[in-house]
Amino acid sequence: MNATRPPIADPVNAAFAGQSATVAARRQSFGLGARRDALGQLGTAIRRNEAALVAALATDFGKPEAEVILTEILPVMQELRHTSRHLRRWMRPRRVVPTLATFGTSARVRPEPRGVCLIIAPWNYPFSLAIGPLISALAAGNSAIIKPSELTPATSALIARLIAETFPPELVTVIEGGVDAAEALLALPFDHIFFTGSPAVGKIVMAAAAKTLASVTLELGGKSPTIIGPDADLKAAAKWVVFGKFVNAGQTCIAPDHLFVHSSVKAAFVAELRSRIDATYGKGGRSPHLARIVNEKHAARLSALLRDAAAKGARVILDGGADSRHIGPTLIEAITPEMQIDHEEIFGPILPILPYDDLDGVIRQINARPKPLALYIFDGQRARVDRIIAATSSGSVGVNLTVAQFSHTGLPFGGVNASGIGAAHGHYGFRAFSHERAILANHFSALPLVFPPYTDRVQRLITLFKRVLG
User: Fold this and answer.
1) Residue 148, C-beta contacts closer than 8 angstroms, at least 6 positions apart
2) Most buried one in 36, 294, 316, 458, CB count within 10 A?
3) Spatial separation of the C-alpha atoms in residues 295 and 154, rounded to whole Å
4) Alpha-carbon distance 18 to 169, whole Å?
């Protein structure tokens, strides 16, 4: 980017200036071997700090160790392994067959690093959603500044220490802090910004990026619906829904937000849900297998959603209990459009159940809302599943499962419109952090035959070209 670089006046500007000064050199020196070395060093550092990471997330969230390994560490290590294995192929320029108009030339697409990248990570999965994008940024040959969330201070401090011990600051550095730090970073002319968070903040990030014409990847969220069809395997569906909804205490961007359950199976499915919740978390909100809400503010927001719904006629059919930041799995029904919970992304362990008889009505409700990050369908009838997929739009679809699409490194992870822009993971993440540069080389092109002046002969050739190419 050609924007004027700011003076070195504080740590934010100093970090940006230090990385900007090395962009040209890095284009020459940060090749396949160096990138693989960087990814290997990152993997070593993560393995060395695994116990510290488990402790940090227990401090910030009360997350159980198994859940930290499953949702924070394994996705990152899988991304590292997949990226390292395929990086040579991803970096290789891709040949493109010439068109008739460009006969006599050779064409290729060369993936090149964008330059200096900003990664703004959220608080709900503070490690994996900071380090996952970093893997793609390094694989594509960029430097990166990471802004972790101030709402998970123990994990943010660990990320800062791990990065400082692993990389020179001109390659990767961490800027801790709150809104002021984020605003200072967004004022700088980054070459690419990767943001994970809410749609509301995503709009702020996109507006800031527009001022410097930085490209963006926005991983946002929304109210991801789940449909339980009349031919669903109810026991299996309950297992997947309980896991997808209540892992991380429901603070997951692709968690099932609400359930549309066919009236013919509602009673049986609710019974399966209750049974699975009891078997997984017991009764009350202090299960050792359930994470806490990130802070008192977000716990109060969830309690307010429940109070508003109850005041307007909703019924709590399973009360998980609420004690400070401990909120247990809660099931509610009789939701109406007047309730806040029907419009706001829940992002917590509260699951509304909406019975339906008419699938077309469900599809209309889904399409009337902003496009969700995920859509889940449980049904044994393939034709009905295909009909739902064809009639709706979402960032991803899970059929007879929930949230597992995030862990598939061969699939793009991202939203559409309000739920996100661009994609991450695997080759899609590499491409997000790359500029695909078009290169066309002349060998014996015939195009000079139709250059001006436009004599009769040239005009006859243009007419011939039009017949052949038009």
Assistant:
1) 121, 126, 130, 155, 156, 159, 160, 174, 176
2) 294
3) 13
4) 8
Q: What is the pTM of this model?
A: 0.94
Which residues are the active-site residues?
219, 253
Q: Which H or E run contains 68?
A: helix 65-68
For residue 285, the model assigns a pLDDT of: 56
Reported in sequence order, the residue ranges of 205-325 that DSSP labels E, i.e. its strands, are 215-219, 225-228, 258-262, 315-318, 322-323
Sign, CA dihedral 108-111-113-117, equals positive
The CB density around residue 76, as the number of other CB atoms within 10 Å, is 22
DSSP 8-state code for residue 417: G
Cα separation, 203 vs 185, in Å, equals: 16
Which residue in the block uniquely carries the two structure tokens 């064409």? 107
Q: Which residues pair with 224 in a beta bridge?
A: none
Instruction: Locate 256 and state its tokens.
Output: 């099932």
Owner of token pair 């990226």 = 83
Cβ(146)–Cβ(134) below 8 Å: yes
Least Cα distance to 126 among 267, 215, 5, 248 occurs for 248
> Is 106 strand, coil or helix?
strand
CA 333/CA 342 separation, integer angstroms? 11
In Å, how far from its chain's centre is CA 446?
Answer: 47
The strand pairing partners of 147, in sequence order, are 120
Question: In which region does residue 334 sit, left (phi positive, over 0), alpha (psi from -120 to 50) or beta (all else)?
Answer: left
Distances in Å between the Cα of 421 and the Cα atoms of 143, 331, 416, 418 are 22, 32, 6, 8
pLDDT beneath 70: ranges in the chain: 1-9, 284-285
Within 10 A of 7 (CB to CB), how many other CB atoms are there? 9
pLDDT at 284: 61
Residue type, 393: S
Sign of CA dihedral 340, 343, 348, 353: positive
With residues binned 3-state (H G I as helix, E B as strand, rest as coil), the percentages for the chain, rounded to 5, are 50, 20, 35
As given in the structure block, the two tokens for residue 73 are: 């560490």
